[in-house]
User: Which sequence fits this backbone?
């Protein structure tokens, strides 16, 4: 591979980091995590960002490797930090690994494996709801093994500590950030990746920055809902730290609308949390638009999808959703709008999902809907 053609670092895979769901058991020991990642560009080097942003204790990574499955065997390459094979991810911090020389081409899959020998606080990770992105874990050290033993391993959809993978690649390549909540944790960004890879010109990566339950304006500090993540003002500067990014799709705000129910119903969800339309617009402008423009990003809004039938649905919430969507569609602040609402709503009852687009809970999109949402993204964004 001619290394002279590679000139810059671009993120080729990414997720968010949030507080994991609070459970009775929050520590693991003698655990291996493995995450397969499809590479979208060719390049000559990789580097890895590992995050303990929401952890309250340092995490020791005993061993870390990346490996390609190739015809002549499984060949793990050590991921190091300051040339050390074991290293710490400090609490509340993110670190970046050393650069690793590895030739990769578009379509390759690499597997990132991390082994934790000691008691490890599993407090920094993100759930990905998409069936197209899965990891696995095993009890014991299998960080260099080609396969995990079936009797000691299970799949997981929680991505712990692994935050971003950068590739040293060609000048033409760039990254698109998909920022949002549980809707963006679903598979529409994965179908967009496939569309960009197959039908675009193959020079854009899709970087998911999504946390289930998160809101623009507020966050929960109780352990009941801490996994719903950080508020927009805290998240956005961290999650827009993406090498080679030149554009962002922001699909956020539905949880601000559907969460408040009153203290008599839920002591953590007061009516005072309910935003006005102006609150949402001003929050979007100040928290998202202004920082994104300073970063030089093109900003695309994305309309909020239907909530008819959801357990907190009301006509007042529906009006707020529609009014906010109208602003997202028409504001001159944006470089464009991705009209997800139009793509998945019922033509006869626009309050609701089309029947094949409802996952069943009247809030999250089905796989069919996710495919339609990916198709709704204008070609200009993925070329």
Assistant:
């Amino acid at each position: 591979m001619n290394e002279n053609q590679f000139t810059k670092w671009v993120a080729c895979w990414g997720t968010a980091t949030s507080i994991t769901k609070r459970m009775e058991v929050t520590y693991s020991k003698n655990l291996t995590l493995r995450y397969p990642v499809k590479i979208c560009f060719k390049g000559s080097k990789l580097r890895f960002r590992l995050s303990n942003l929401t952890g309250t204790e340092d995490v020791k990574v005993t061993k870390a490797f990346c490996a390609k499955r190739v015809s002549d065997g499984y060949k793990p390459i050590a991921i190091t930090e300051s040339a050390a094979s074991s290293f710490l991810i400090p609490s509340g911090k993110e670190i970046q690994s050393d650069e690793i020389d590895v030739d990769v081409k578009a379509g390759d899959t690499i597997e990132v494996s991390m082994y934790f020998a000691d008691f490890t606080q599993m407090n920094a990770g993100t759930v990905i709801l998409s069936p197209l992105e899965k990891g696995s874990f095993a009890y014991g050290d299998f960080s260099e093994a080609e396969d995990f033993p079936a009797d000691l391993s299970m799949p997981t959809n929680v991505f712990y500590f692994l935050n971003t993978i950068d590739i040293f690649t060609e000048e033409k390549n760039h990254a698109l950030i998909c920022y949002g909540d549980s809707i963006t944790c679903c598979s529409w960004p994965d179908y967009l990746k496939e569309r960009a890879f197959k039908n675009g010109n193959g020079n854009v990566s899709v970087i998911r920055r999504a946390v289930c339950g998160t809101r623009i304006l507020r966050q929960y500090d109780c352990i009941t809902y801490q996994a719903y993540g950080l508020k927009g003002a805290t998240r956005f500067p961290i999650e827009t730290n993406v090498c080679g990014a030149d554009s962002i799709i922001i699909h956020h705000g539905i949880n601000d609308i559907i969460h408040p129910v009153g203290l008599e119903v839920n002591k953590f969800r007061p009516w005072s949390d309910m935003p006005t339309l102006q609150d949402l617009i001003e929050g979007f402008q100040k928290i998202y638009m202004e920082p994104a423009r300073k970063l030089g990003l093109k900003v695309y809004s994305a309309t909020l999808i239907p909530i008819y039938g959801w357990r907190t649905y009301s006509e007042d919430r529906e009006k707020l959703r529609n009014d906010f969507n109208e602003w997202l569609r028409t504001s001159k602040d944006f470089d464009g709008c991705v009209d997800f609402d139009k793509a998945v709503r019922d033509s006869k009852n626009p309050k609701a999902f089309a029947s094949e687009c409802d996952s069943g809970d009247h809030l999250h999109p089905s796989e069919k809907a996710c495919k339609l949402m990916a198709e709704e993204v204008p070609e200009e964004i993925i070329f």
